[in-house]
Amino acid sequence: MTQQEQAPSERTRVRRLPGKARYDEPTIHQILDEARLCHVAGIVGGSAMALPTLHAREGNIVYLHGSQSNAVMKSVVLAGEAYVTVTLYDGLRLARSAFESSIAYRSVALFGPANEVTDFNEKSRVLEMFVDAILPGRASEVRPMNEREVNLTMVVAVEIAEASAKISAGPTEDFPEDLDLPIWSGTVPAELRFTTPIESQNGAMLTGEIPVPPSVRQLLDEQ
Questions:
Q1: Beta-strand (E) ranges in 119-203?
Q2: What string of pLDDT tens digits covers the 223 residues of the chain?
Q3: What's the chain's Rg over C-alpha atoms?
Q4: DSSP class of 188
Q5: Which of 146, 162, 168, 212 could potentially form a cystine with 111 if both were Cys, beta carbons 3.0 to 4.6 Å apart?
Q6: Rounded to two decimals, what is the model's pTM?
Q7: CATH numeric code, 3-196
Q8: How many contiguous H segments (helices) and E segments (strands) does the chain have?
Q9: Residue 91's pLDDT is what?
Q10: Minimal CA–CA distance to 60: which of 157, 164, 167, 165?
Q11: What is the pLDDT of residue 4?
């Protein structure tokens, strides 16, 4: 997505409440990177289907991963193009009327050419990047994927050719005639938080013998 391609296309132009739209690359990238998962859409057996899955961005490429047998992922590769969305839920925006009440959110919708990553070395590299994209530092703490595991996993690279972001934030927007109504209005922020880690009870090592790894400690310290 070059500077010239940031103008919205007919597929990415935000038509309802266009004042909430953002088309700049930094905003789009920031939302993509913060989102914990995405949804990718495809046509399977003549019906539209959407799949929640993990994603990781590297430059102008969004990588998706799933099972080699996943019908939606296979349909995206067959079509040669993907439609991907992410949404960050930031809370409630409670107006004095039901009509003006809404949620606070940040979202991105993107279209782009989609290709399966088939080179074994590149695929292995991307899958390791996935691990650190979900939890920074975790890739160096776990057993690397073996050849069988890499081959069982499908990785799809989607170029961000067209994209738009939509951000709903700030004070509620009441109708002027509602401003004097004795009804509470305001925002209720929401956030994703990680809590106390729960150690697995399986394996040869006894509970408590292995310390919480640096990646998890860092995750908790950042909150």
A1: 153-159, 162-168, 186-189
A2: 444 446 677 677 676 766 777 889 999 999 999 999 999 999 999 999 999 999 999 999 999 999 999 999 999 999 999 999 999 999 999 999 999 999 999 999 999 999 999 999 999 999 999 999 999 999 999 999 999 999 999 999 999 999 999 999 988 889 999 999 999 999 999 999 999 998 887 776 666 678 899 999 998 888 7
A3: 21
A4: E
A5: 162
A6: 0.87
A7: 2.30.110.10
A8: 5, 10
A9: 96
A10: 157
A11: 40
Domain ranges in the chain are 3-196
Q: Can you tell me the distance from the alpha carbon of 121 to that of 158, in angstroms, rounded to the nearest whole number? A: 18
Task: State the burial class of residue 171 (Cβ atoms within 10 Å of its Cβ: 0-12, 13-18, 19+).
Answer: exposed
Spatial separation of the C-alpha atoms in residues 213 and 138, rounded to whole Å: 8
Which DSSP string corresponds to 18-66?
A: GGGEE--HHHHHHHHHH-S-EEEEEEETTEEEEEEE-EEEETTEEEEEE
User: Would you state the structure tokens that stand for residue 45, as one six-digit string?
Assistant: 């057996």
What gap in Å lies between CA 105 and CA 91, rounded to an integer? Answer: 7
With tokens 């296309």, the residue in question is: 9
* C-alpha distance from residue 168 to each of 35, 104, 105, 162 (Å): 16, 5, 5, 21
Tell me which residue of 170, 184, 51 sits closest to 106, measured CA to CA: 170
Question: What tokens appear for 210 in the block?
Answer: 């292995």
Do 160 and 110 meet the contact criterion of CB atoms below 8 Å apart? yes
